[in-house]
Amino acid sequence: MSLGLTVGACDKLVNVEPQNSISSDKGFTTKEDAAAGLLGAYDATQSSDYYGLAFPTMADLISGDVRHVGTFVTTYGVIGANQTLPDNIQVGNTWNSIYLAIGRANYLIKESEKINDPAFPKLTTQGEARALRALHYMNLIGLWGGTPQGYGYAGGLGVPLRLLPTTAIGPETEAIGRASEADVAAAIREDLDFAIANLPTGAGGNRVTKNAALALRARFELRERKYADALKFAQQVPAIPNFATSANTGTTAPDAIWQLFFSNTDQSQYAFYWYPSPSRNEFDPGSSIAAAHPAGDKRLPINVVSASTAVTVAGSPYTLAAGTTQKYYRTSTRDDRFNMVRYAEVVLTIAEAAAQTGDLITAKTQLDIIRTRAGLAPTTAITAPALITDILLQRRLEFAYEGLYWFDLRRTNTVQTALPSYTQSFRNLFPIPFREVSLTNGLIAQNPLY
């Protein structure tokens, strides 16, 4: 009998259903399954090939705000020199990571429909997943789509648009061609509208809220040059209390609406790649960003550390190395947060959209909030073009190393003006990874001239 009990117990242990993964043919059946699936969707966004390092860094390398000084010359180094080719491994890894994140969101959205537990917050769960999916497609269009002149133009190129999960090899996994930019934009707007309608308000956390979804919609409309819409959505985001007088800081930004959180066991790679020994020191500030700061700008010592500096953050001592940044520096714990959406972006979106639609008073008022907070005098600009020039500078300095500057250059069609050595305007779009083109026999078409 003892032997029988032992064999039975062993058999039971051997056949335990794994709890850290769920077969796609089983799906989500409980609210706990869906909650775990939502965490998985956020986890995909944290990937080191995505927002855990690569995606914002690639954008800042090609914009020149980050300078490659390390050993990854065939991946990050080539991107920083604006000589990226379709076989660049990092470009392929980031493309794959974004589609992995889309796949997790798609699966959660579909499977959550099957859960009928009254205690399951179905609409808010789907709202978060759809906001994440919208962000992912915004980023795909941001790097690989549009035209060399920017976004929102006739004939803009899109990316493969997958809105349903792939659960089995077969029709679901067959290759599909690229949708148009307009079709992808319509899907982004639909997802963000759903999120805005179904998410609670809130700010400063590690989850998407209505406020974050509104800010993302404003960001997207600004990129697409729909200035009236950008203004409408940005003005719906509630102000952060005491924002105008709050300190300019790095990843502990008091104006954060949504951040990705990392921990010592779920680490961010930013400080590891920015700082020297015991880290890699793969990146330094770009050669022109320090000089772009006006005299007295409080953001300069945050963006560019000029001398070794001892600081204390949350009770922990750190030594900031010269030639690096205060945005990411927690080399021992690697738990620097990443700012996904900040209220400063909302303020500058209102300012720019107002200037573009003729409301120069609002534009100046909002711009001066940012300037005053940075220790600068009110702007002297009085015309729409002058105000927009100042607004774009403030965006560059305010969001240094947060991955936004390249998309500002692209959407304003100023890549070749700001970076005159970039004479090949077709490179304003990243190349589609070689693997995607070759394995689909060209069904996924390469961007022109690559």
UniProtKB/TrEMBL annotation:
Keywords: Cell outer membrane, Membrane, Signal. It comes from the Bacteria. Pfam families: SusD-like_3, SusD_RagB. It comes from Hymenobacter humi. The keyword Phosphoprotein does not apply. Belongs to the SusD family. This is RagB/SusD family nutrient uptake outer membrane protein. CDD domains: SusD. Coiled coil: none annotated. Residues 82-222 form the SusD-like N-terminal domain. The keyword Membrane applies. InterPro entries: SusD-like_N, SusD_RagB_dom, TPR-like_helical_dom_sf. Residues 324-418 form the RagB/SusD domain. SUPFAM superfamilies: TPR-like. It is found in: Cell outer membrane.
